[in-house]
Amino acid sequence: MDNCQFRQIIKTEHGYQSPDRRLLLAHHLPGWPGYIFYARIALAFLKEGLAGRRGTLDNERWMSASLACIKAVESAGGRLNVSGLESLAEHKGPLVFIANHMSILETVILPSFALVFNDVTFIIKDELRRYPVIGWVMQALDFISVHRKNPREDLKVVLNEGQKRIQQGCSVVIFPQATRSTVFDIKNFNTLGVKLARKAGVPVVPIALKTDFHGSGRWLKDIGPIHSDRPIYFRFGSPIPVVGNGQAAHHSVVEFIAHNLRSWGVEVRNPFA
């Protein structure tokens, strides 16, 4: 499946389902899912990381790398279920995507879907830019980075840089949680995405994500166990206009994410009264 074939699937089916294949090695050979997953991820990002160092990394290559990550998941026995893209096909112009955050999977897989409709950038923690190989990609794509040490400074960076990108016609993806978690704690889900959308004058789109297929590592958070038996879900909501102080939009985003996570068996803490 190349970029053109993938775009056609998304634009006609408004979603994606991993093919139903029986992978004997992934299901019966201990350690194989992790080996094949990390080997294919490393290969994809090494190729595009080198392109980033040479200054030849563009959106087509980025989408190819993201598709390679989907194939890495499927080679390890994972199943990806993506839905709710109908409204994105109907919308024209940039958006602010607001999602919960479970693992690094969303950062490497989301681009393949978002890039079908528009240019997109991510708000990431600055330390990711200093990672070997994957950091080269993020530097080349000029992701917006925050340090998460000074909330006031981070707010300024997100609002100023985010608005600049949106004015250039680029959508922005933000994960408002303080850290990745397999539990959705609403009190830790801030309003930064809504504030950016309000300033830039664009709608927000909630994305509910379940990516605990990729576990956190004990020593390195981004290199953890692979759970092939856990399906991966990405569900996109409809664009929500930000009106007034944005509280209604924030409430709608949180409720959309919480509702879907509950339906997938994810724990939700501190729901709205």
Question: Could you describe the 3D structure shown?
Answer:
The protein is of the alpha/beta class and 273 residues long. It contains ten helices and ten strands. It has helices at 3-13, 24-28, 32-54, 59-75, 86-90, 105-114, 134-140, 151-167, 192-200, 247-263, and strands spanning 16-17, 80-83, 96-99, 120-125, 144-146, 171-174, 184-185, 204-210, 232-236, 268-269. The strands form two sheets. An eight-stranded mixed β-sheet has the order 1-2-9-8-3-6-4-5, with helices on both faces. It has a two-stranded parallel sheet with strand order 7-10. Strand 4, helix 7 (134-140) and strand 5 (144-146) form a beta-alpha-beta unit. The longest helix is centred in the N-terminal third of the chain and has 23 residues, at 32-54. The radius of gyration is 18 Å and the shape is globular. The protein starts with a helix and ends with a strand.
Overview in brief:
The protein is of the alpha/beta class. It has helices at 3-13, 24-28, 32-54, 59-75, 86-90, 105-114, 134-140, 151-167, 192-200, 247-263; strands spanning 16-17, 80-83, 96-99, 120-125, 144-146, 171-174, 184-185, 204-210, 232-236, 268-269.
